[in-house]
């Protein structure tokens, strides 16, 4: 670079620094995405056989087969529990942002589940919710409350709430930490001025806190929606071979089973495209309805 000017050297260095991440992005994000779109129009079985072009047949099958889209009810349960998760995270953030003795201990305790592996969490809760030997049912039997015992991981009416609770336990601390960071960015002088004007805590929270952390709250709602639609990890952790009769299947686990269990990568690719489009549409709708398009 001796013959180059300072401006040219600067541009060359920036280009070289950007080259590697851009190539990685193209290789591991955009190229697979383009291939996924192409495979969704084929009947590829995942092997070396020729990929037969079948047009929109995979997409037609998705919306004609009730077993594919009925799993969205399970995803909806994750969404509802996720809203509770956001509310709890915001509550703890507000409490721990105040002057509280030992608040760092509580912050670490609530954040700790986030760094634990999801499979380990699944095994831990499996022992807790096991029908015969789980801690909850054993406690209920020893307390003489046999009628209150539940087959937590085998009852279709209950199992998805249990799995969604696992997700809440793991990710609530992460959301709480993000909220705390947002709360600490609000100037304290604003709260002092509100206190002088006679505003109570509810009025202060409604008029100062929520508007100040609106963007962060929007991000948390996006993460909740995206996590609910793409939920699969705890269902896979509890039922690595697939849940009985698909009682805990989500759209992602259904997609994975379609690809790797039934060797229908073409249909699975179409399901992946549908999931991506659905996520984009729901995020835009959520932003428009809840946040008035971000105005």
Radius of gyration: 24 Å
- In CATH terms, the superfamily is MetI-like
Report the principal-axis shape: globular
Low-pLDDT windows of residues: none
Which percent bin holds the helix content?
over 70%
Class inferred from helices and paired strands: mainly alpha
Q: What portion of residues belong to β-strands?
A: under 5%
Q: What is the CATH topology descriptor? A: MetI-like fold
Give the count of structural domains: 1
The helix count comes to 14
CATH architecture: Orthogonal Bundle
What composes the largest sheet? Answer: none
CATH class categorisation:
Mainly Alpha
Short description:
71% of the residues lie in helices and 0% in strands. By secondary structure, the chain is mainly α.
Structural account:
The chain is 71% helix and 0% strand. It has 295 residues and is an all-alpha fold. It has one domain: Orthogonal Bundle (MetI-like fold), CATH 1.10.3720.10. Helix 2 (57-64) crosses helix 14, helix 4 (72-97) packs parallel to helix 8 (159-184) and helix 5 crosses helix 8. The longest helix is centred in the N-terminal third of the chain and has 34 residues, at 6-39. It is globular and about 75 Å long.
Q: Which properties best describe this structure?
A:
mainly alpha; 14 helices; transmembrane helix; UgpAE/MalFG_permease; transmembrane; 71% helix; membrane; Carbohydrate ABC transporter permease
């Amino acid at each position: 670079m001796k013959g180059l000017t300072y401006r040219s050297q600067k541009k060359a260095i920036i280009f070289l620094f950007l080259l590697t991440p851009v190539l990685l992005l193209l290789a591991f994000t955009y190229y697979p995405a383009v291939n996924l779109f192409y495979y969704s129009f084929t009947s590829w079985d995942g092997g070396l056989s020729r990929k037969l072009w079948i047009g929109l047949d995979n997409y037609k099958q998705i919306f004609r087969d009730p077993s594919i889209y009925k799993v969205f009810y399970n995803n909806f349960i994750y969404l509802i529990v996720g809203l509770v998760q956001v509310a709890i995270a915001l509550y703890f953030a507000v409490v721990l942002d105040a002057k509280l003795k030992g608040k760092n201990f509580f912050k670490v305790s609530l954040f700790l589940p986030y760094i634990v592996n999801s499979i380990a969490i699944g095994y831990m809760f499996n022992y807790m919710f096991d029908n015969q030997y789980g801690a909850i049912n054993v406690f209920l039997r020893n307390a003489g409350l046999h009628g209150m015992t539940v087959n937590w991981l085998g009852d279709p009416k209950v199992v998805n709430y249990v799995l969604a609770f696992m997700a809440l336990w793991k990710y609530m601390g992460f959301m709480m930490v993000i909220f705390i960071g947002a709360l600490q960015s609000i100037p304290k002088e604003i709260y002092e001025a509100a206190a002088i004007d006679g505003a109570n805590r509810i009025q202060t929270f409604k008029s100062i806190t929520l508007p100040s952390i609106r963007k962060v709250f929007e991000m948390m709602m996006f993460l909740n929606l995206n996590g609910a639609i793409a939920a699969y990890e705890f269902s896979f952790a509890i039922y690595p071979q697939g849940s009985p009769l698909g009682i805990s299947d989500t759209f992602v686990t259904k997609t994975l089973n379609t690809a790797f269990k039934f060797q229908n990568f073409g249909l699975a690719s179409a399901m992946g495209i549908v999931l991506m489009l659905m996520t984009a549409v729901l995020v835009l709708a959520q932003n428009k309805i809840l946040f008035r398009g971000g105005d």
